[in-house]
Amino acid sequence: MSSMSSPIRWQKFREDHWRRPDVAVIRAEDAEPWKYIIPGHWPVLCVELVSPPSPSVEQLLEKCKLYHQQGVAYCWVIEPESRMAWTFHRSAQPVQVTESGSLDADSANVSINLTDLWRGLKNKRSNRNE
Questions:
Q1: pLDDT, tens digit, for every residue of 35-80?
Q2: Residues 77-86 as b or e (16 or more Cβ within 10 Å = b)
Q3: How is residue 116 annotated by DSSP?
Q4: Cα dist. 10→43, 49, 64, 81 in Å?
Q5: What are phi and psi of 48, to 5 degrees?
Q6: How far is CA 65 from the centre of its chain?
Q7: Do 1 and 20 form a contact (C-beta atoms < 8 A)?
Q8: Other C-beta atoms lying within 10 Å of the C-beta of residue 26
Q9: Contact yes or no for 103/97 (Cβ under 8 A)
């Protein structure tokens, strides 16, 4: 996985419709900021986080369909408060992942154990209160 030095650019789906994921994973060869918005250079994984006043899980899964239409292979929707998550491959239906399961994006070689994610979020929140 490669990181970009520039902020992620908005994705244009129609003349009047722009979308940007909370997190995007791109291929190293697409790391130049100008390539990010060129058709054929879409992220391989988009991650959406449910947090107020964010849309509902259902709305974010619908948003994932827009990413899939543009060539994004995987989308994850994560709801930290309820410790729920969904993985959504463009050729399948969304699948809810158990609290102790893992999210995988095989073609992007990206995986995250949800137990580690929830523990990390808890530790982050605990540090805020100190």
A1: 555 556 678 899 999 987 768 899 999 999 988 988 889 999 999 8
A2: bbbeeebbbb
A3: H
A4: 12, 17, 15, 27
A5: -115, 135
A6: 12
A7: no
A8: 21
A9: yes
Walk me through the domains of the chain, giving residue ranges and CATH numbers.
11-128 (3.90.1570.10)
Pairing of strands 45-49, 74-79: parallel
CB 110 within 8 A of CB 1: yes
- Under a CB-based contact definition with an 8 Å cutoff, are residues 99 and 82 in contact? no
pLDDT tier at 97, thresholds 50, 70, 90: very high
What is the value of pTM for the model shown? Answer: 0.74
Output the six-digit token pair for 44.
């391989």
Instruction: For residue 101, give Cα distances in angstroms to 66, 75, 82.
Output: 26, 16, 14
User: Tell me, what's the pLDDT at 124?
Assistant: 67
Reported in sequence order, the residue ranges of 65-108 that DSSP labels E, i.e. its strands, are 74-79, 84-89, 95-97, 102-105
The answer to whether residues 69 and 39 touch, using CB atoms and an 8 Å cutoff, is no
Task: Report the amino acid identity of residue 115.
Answer: T
Q: How many CA atoms lie within 13 A of 127 on its CB side?
A: 6
| CA–CA distance, 125 with 83 (Å, rounded to integer) | 14
